[in-house]
Every structure is written in C-alpha cells, then in structure tokens.
Amino acid sequence: MATESPRRPSRCTGGVVVRPQAVTEQSYMESVVTFLQDVVPQAYSGTPPAEEKEKIIWVRFENADLNDTSRNMEFHEVHSTGNEPPLLLMIGYSDGMQVWSIPISGEAQELFSVRHGPVRAARILPAPQISAQKCDSFSEKRPLLGVCKSIGSSGTSPPYCCVDLYSLRTGEMVKSIQFKTPIYDLHCNKRILVVVLQEKIAALTAA
C-alpha cells in the first residue's frame, strides 16, 4: 500500500538525523510505523505543498553487516545486555529510495538517499567470505548497496537493465553492471549476488 511523504532533495550520502519523540507505550514495531508516518518529514524544513508530495511505494527491513551482531562486537556487547542492534529500514519512493538506521533509542539516521527515478530492487550486500587465494575488490568501500532503478548510472541503458553498486561508507557509486534485459529482483549472500532477469538468472561473485 502506497502512502505519501514530503518530497526531499537527492543525496547519495546520509547525514540527516531525526530525534526521537516522547516515550509512549508503543511496541518497537509500532514505533517504526510511527517513524514512517510522522518522523521522516521532520528531517526536512517547511511544509511542501500537497502536489510536491511523493508516494512511498515499498518498505523493507534489511539484515546486513551494519546490524549483524556476529560481525560487530559492539552490537554483540549491546545485544547481550538485552538491547537490540539497529534496524535498517529501506524506503522506496516514486523517484528514488532511502536507507535509515533506527537504533533502540529512536534517533534515526539517514545512511543513503538517491533520487534518480523509481527503484525496482535494492539489497545491502554482506561482506564476502574470502579465501587466501582471493581478494575483495571493494573491501575499502563496504558496506555496499546494490540498486536497480529505472535510469542506470550511464543514462543510456534501457530501464531497469543495470545494477549500480553504491558505497554506504563514502556515498559514491563504485560499479555498474549492465544487462540487456530488465532486472526483476536481486538476492545476495556472503558468496554471490544473484540478479533475476526475464529469461535467466545471473550469479556474480560477491567479491
């Protein structure tokens, strides 16, 4: 179900922080729903006119290195005290997407935002398992975000025919993978990135 959110400027790096609201009796999940409805617009000044609002097309929680207690000892220590690692919330709009980190304190931080057309699929890629014979070409740029949007980085490929990989550390695009037919979905684990196309499935090494 689509909902509306004030239109916001494009940025590839994060930085916007939304302060938590007064404590209520809401559950953690209810607090996230409230975040979608009320808190996201706080990050931007002024009240845009109604025609400037954009629709939220999809919302998804993501498990990634950023909130994996097995990979981050500081989260493991916090987790052992009864608190939870931050939620990673991905929001798809009619003209782009955002990634938010929402810790238990409720002080949400924007990690990534892009506004170059609707996004069909997006995944945060886990750091790969590397053997002694292989190396990770993107080790200094991770975590990476894979995005399939209507307009690729080159601007010349057909709609939804490329996967752009962005660094959540620097905000830059580090690689663009082009295909001849539209992409329908992305899946990934520590070994491969799977690109679901109309006529086939392409599996790429995570490194």
TrEMBL record:
InterPro entries: BCAS3-like, BCAS3_WD40. It comes from the Eukaryota. This is BCAS3 WD40 domain-containing protein. It comes from Gallus gallus (Chicken). The lineage of its organism: Eukaryota, Metazoa, Chordata, Craniata, Vertebrata. One of its GO terms (biological process) is autophagy. Residues 54-205 form the BCAS3 WD40 domain.
